[in-house]
Amino acid sequence: MTILELDAVxxxxxxxxxxxxxxxxxxxxxxxxxxxxxxxxxxxxxSTLLNLAGGLDSPTQGTVTVDGTSLGxxxxxxxxxxxxxRVGYVFQDLNLLAxxxxxxxxxxxxxxxxxxxxxxxxxAEAALSEVDLDGLGQRFPDELSGGQQxxxxxxxxxxxxxxxxxxxxxxxxxxxxxxxxxxxxxxxKVDGGAAGVLVTHDARHAAWADRVVxxxxxxxxxxxxxxxxxxxxxxxxxxxxx
Length: 242
Ligand code: ADP
Ligand code: MG
What we know:
This protein is of the alpha/beta class. The chain has a domain at 2-96 and 162-234: P-loop containing nucleotide triphosphate hydrolases (Rossmann fold). It contains eight helices and ten strands. A six-stranded mixed sheet has the order 6-7-8-3-9-10, with helices on both faces. A hairpin with a 2-residue loop joins β9 and β10. The radius of gyration is 18 Å and the shape is globular. The chain starts with a strand and ends in an 8-residue tail after the last helix. Magnesium ion (MG) binds at residues 46-47, 92, 168.
């Protein structure tokens, strides 16, 4: 079953002489239980693709379908509800709310969706413990390290009944051990019935995916199956994943 489908998607940012053609006819589909990694140089359109997939931005041309709903045909309210309920998003810059505690940040999507606080909070605490942040729920983001903040953002993206998990370099601020834990979590959420898209620069992280899509100048230039020997394939220094 297909959960995410981009069909001949173009996205032009701006207009006239300064227009940037960030995506030029990208088609990709991600099924239930499937994790797709997106790799490519800086500026190749990876974040644009993820924003379109999450309904945070709309294509100039082409269609995006999430869980059977064509985003271009759904109204603002329906789109907001779909984003809140069905899509989990880990942003490159985390987007944690500074005035909310870690647990409140994680519970936010559930509460926005109408779940009472007394129900949402224990779920948030459980999600925090899944990312090894037991007991830190009452801290504010600025009382946590970069890596801990990143894990709060991940807990928030995975909480609830998400069908589609979108992660834009979610392991950026993490040491390799924590990064690996985050990928294992993402993998298990996907194995549990979601679909996932992971933007990463790291071939060892892409090795967790079922499929790797390479973007260059807004075009998919290559797709590969699972990377069994990423270090060899992409000549990444640092040795094999252990
Ligand atoms: P990546 O995530 O692969 O680094 P992006 O999707 O962020 O790439 O950007 C693709 C291209 O689109 C780049 O040239 C970038 O400068 C441009 N771009 C992205 N967002 C905007 C925007 N909001 N306005 C104008 N140009 C943008
Ligand atoms: Mg980016």
